[in-house]
DNA sequence: CACATAAGCTTATGCGCATAAGCAATTCTC
DNA sequence: GAGAATTGCTTATGCGCATAAGCTTATGTG
């Protein structure tokens, strides 16, 4: 691969990231949400109550980010946090009634965003895209040694 | 498109954004760069001197972001800023010798990142990806009325 | 030419996400 | 069962990017 191709790919990813995020932000702003929060709500809606470590894994963000996201969503009444009975370190996060309603709203705009994103593309191409993106994501994702926590493998910085 | 498909797409874009950016950050950190700065250097390397408004457009970020990025790259000696003779509001940004050397380094890691990103994908798929991403980006990009500056079309907030 | 509008840039401020560091609770190992 | 290592969460802090607001210079309009 020559530099022009490499640059086209990296730049395309960067631009799509910025634009898609900005568009998502614009769409969920009327719901009182900032980007990132919709992902937490949707994850809870998909899977039910989760502890923060699971949310961190599912959302692809670090634990401190989950702490802050959860705190804000709790403050606005969309989620509830309670200590886990089986593990007193852990915090169970679940949707409130308000959060469930909000999640439904988010799902509507989420559908609209996806359709807007692939508008004009051949259906076959659109169907392949999530898989392609996931494959690329896996390629650049930090390596996990196994069931354990991710470790910094390089000692040299 | 049902919600599951829409969600798969949006989530895939979000995750790729996070991971690709994180990987890029890890790769350019040894060069003393933070993510975003490499884009500015590469743009100058591609096109030669630009004023900040052009960089804002090319990089897909807002003018205040360019101001800060440029200030930091100037402080580290990689770019030079000088007033444009034809328009005293504008600031011409160009690479220094140090910046040109650094851009070459960036191009190397940029190639490596792209190859890592599409590793394992069929060559045909990899070749299509930049175009697909660009099409999606165009779909979610803010509408421009024409040659003029983008305007906020909604008065209602 | 005077004035209003637009364009280029900057400062101030806020949010998301990151890493570093630290505490509390759990689990592993002997 | 005691100490060590791991896990879950939090606080502190920093960077990128955004919007809001303001300054300076250019440009359009009478």
UniProtKB/TrEMBL annotation, chains A, B:
Record-annotated HTH marR-type domain positions: 6-138
Protein name: MarR family transcriptional regulator
Sections of the chain in a coiled coil: none
Organism this protein belongs to: Yinghuangia soli
Molecular functions (GO terms): DNA-binding transcription factor activity
Pfam families on file: MarR
Listed GO biological process terms: response to stress
Top-rank lineage group of the source organism: Bacteria
């Amino acid at each position: 691969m020559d530099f022009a191709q490499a640059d086209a790919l990296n730049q395309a990813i960067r631009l799509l990231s910025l634009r898609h995020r900005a568009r998502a932000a614009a769409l969920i702003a009327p719901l009182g949400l900032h980007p990132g929060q919709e992902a937490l709500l949707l994850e809870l809606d998909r899977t039910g109550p989760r502890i923060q470590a699971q949310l961190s894994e599912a959302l692809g963000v670090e634990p401190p980010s989950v702490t802050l996201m959860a705190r804000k969503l709790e403050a606005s009444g969309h989620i509830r946090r309670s200590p886990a009975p089986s593990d007193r370190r852990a915090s169970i996060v679940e949707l409130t009634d308000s959060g469930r309603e909000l999640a439904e709203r988010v799902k509507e705009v989420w559908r609209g965003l996806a359709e807007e994103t692939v508008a004009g593309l051949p259906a076959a191409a659109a169907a392949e895209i999530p898989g392609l993106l996931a494959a690329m994501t896996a390629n650049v994702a930090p390596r996990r040694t196994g069931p354990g926590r991710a470790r910094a493998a390089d000692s040299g910085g």
